[in-house]
Amino acid sequence: MEANIELLLGAKVYDANGEKVGRIEEFRADEDGDACRIEAYLIGASALVERLSAWTLIRPIKRALKTRHIYSVFEVPWQDMDLSDPKRPRLRVARKDLQRAR
Amino acid sequence: MDLIRDVLDKKLVDREDCAMGRASGLVIQFGENTQPHITHILIGGPSLWARIHPALGNLSTKLSQLWGPKKKEHTRIPWSRVETIGKEIKLDIEAKESGAIDWEIWIARHIIERLPGGGSEEEE
Amino acid sequence: MKKILQLTLGIITSVGGFLEIGSVTTAAQAGASFGYQLLWAILLGTICLIFLIEMSGRLSAVSKHTIVDAMRERFGFPFFFFVLIGIVIVAFLVLVAELGGIGFALQILTGVGFPIWALPVSLIVWLMMWKGTFSLIENGASLLGLITISFAIAAWKLNPDWSQVGSGMLPSMPGSDKAKYGFLAVSILGASISPYLMYFYSSGAIEDEWDRSYIGMNRIISTFGMTFGGFLSMAVLIVCALAFRPAGVQVDTFPQAALMMTTIFPKWGFYLFAFSMLFACFGAALEISLAIAYFFAQGFGWNWSEDLEPSKDARFAFVYTIIILIAAIPLILRVDPIKVTMLSMALTSATLPLAIGPFLFLMNDPIYLGKYRNGWISNSVVAIVIIISFVLSIISIPLQIVGG
Would you call C314 and B108 a contact, using CB atoms and an 8 Å cutoff? Predict the structure, then answer.
């Protein structure tokens, strides 16, 4: 199957129980010779901060607000993502089993 | 490497550093138990406009067949042609052969070169 | 030595910001209606521009990317396209106004109406871009623009009360006509803090092949250039405050504004004004045409450079050819350039957040700027400009209706 990642960007992702997890904001990939394989998907608003390289702006705000978590981002390994319907990506695991990226 | 931050919308250049446009899309291939991998970079045209709305992508496809270089297919560059990814993406390809600058050549030949002093895009 | 000559990039950029038809007519109206009370608006615009232009140059010198390159790469195509629509519509209206300004200046000099001049003027602007190089445009327009120093000489010779001029640098409310005062303040800021100046300067830094060694010089160029323009814009306001306000003359038309220099230079004042506007609007028209073409070319990843033969950057050349041609049409149809100017300034204010907002992120991006990204002072200035731009964007159009 084929899909366009620029059209997957921003797609809402639901977990195996139908619970909303967030939107796909980034694709982590690894180059292996001539191939480029997707290792993980970053889901959540803070992945957008990562993509905009905006941590230098956000960290001072986070420090000023004295919060540990004002954001959430999940790093979903490729095996846990089901893209058989690219318009409705689903996780193969539950949200509670996801690993936070930060 | 992060694909949206480091690859998508980045400028593409050929072997001779000639501008080829920007990476407007990336095609991935995947299966039930196969790790997704990038097969092609898409340049310009319908893949670009579909990011705003699918209807614009369809309109772009129809218009591109009516005038200009009348391309039937999107410009797709195999990922295997990627040499380096940095501030630009350097491709092991010639811009003219790739189809990425068909519009540039068409406008140069049909409009710019017909005006006095426009020059010739074929001159070295 | 070569770096010092780059001051011309600063001068031509400031001509497009402070000495084009919009800035001159609003400064003239401000002086005629409110004396020195709106000098603070020009000062605020100048300070904001010094910082914004310095940042634009720094981004290009360090990252070898223009603002538009970086905006497309960081924010993606849909966002870029949205900004493109807003910025290009406004910049196009300003281009119509500048071509009209050149036409008006020729009307004053020759008696032939500006609609007749629309096509020849557009052709000359286009020809300069078609055959000229970036340094010819940069140096030529800057040199010609130096005639506007006559405004400063006129202001000095009129011997204003400098303590009153100083008081005008601080905001104060007028006794009456608050809506018009507010409209003119917004218009002055909208006319000076124009996003196309940033795109032009950033592209110019790439055209002139700046690198990290230009960072210090960039500060000097942006400060000197914007101060030059702001200073001359203040001079226009002072001249009109002294020439028109005592007699209660309102400046509503361009030919009326032309009389501002005749008080002090009875024989040459008319011609000095006309030639100043001719060259300033010509420089501004070149700058805006280039800024629009740069925006398209950089955003879509085409070949671009004013130094290339048109066939080598065909799409870039096609864009500026088309926009200059289309910009002549409203003038041929006798649309009043002053009305277009007023509308463009209100819309510039309304669309400022689109341009300045992303800039805050770009100037803090470690990948583009590394150790040269913004410190807290620059970030604070950008944040203040963003707040100002949001306020302007909300009030500009209602004020245009009520006070314009």
Answer: yes
B21 to C78: CB separation less than 8 angstroms, yes or no: no
What's the CATH number where C65 sits? 1.10.4160.10
In Å, how far from its chain's centre is CA A11? 10
Contacts of C130 in chain B (CB under 8 A): 115, 117-118
Which CATH number applies to B3-43+76-114: 2.30.30.240, 3.50.50.60, 3.30.565.10, 3.10.490.10? 2.30.30.240
C-alpha dist (Å) from residue C232 to C68, C115, C278: 29, 29, 16
C36 falls within a domain:
yes
The answer as to whether C394 is a domain residue is no
**pTM score above 0.90:** yes
Question: Mean pLDDT of all residues in chain C?
Answer: 90
The pLDDT of residue C53 is 94
Which of these, C221, C213, C211, lies nearest to C64 by C-alpha position?
A: C211
* C-alpha–C-alpha distance, residues B53 and B64, integer Å: 17
Domains identified in chain A, total number: 1
Gyration radius from chain B CA atoms: 16
Q: How long a stretch of residues is chain B? A: 124
ipTM score:
0.93
Percent of residues, chain C, with pLDDT higher than 90: 62
- Looking up residue A37, the CATH number of its domain turns out to be 2.30.30.240
Alpha-carbon gap: A59 to the closest alpha carbon of chain C (Å):
12
Domain that holds residue C233: 2-342
- Helices C67-110 and C337-362 sit at what angle, rounded to 10 degrees? 160
CB atoms within 10 A of CB C253: 12
Smallest Cβ distance to A2: which of B27, B32, B51?
B27
Choose the closest CB to A35 out of B8, B37, B51: B37
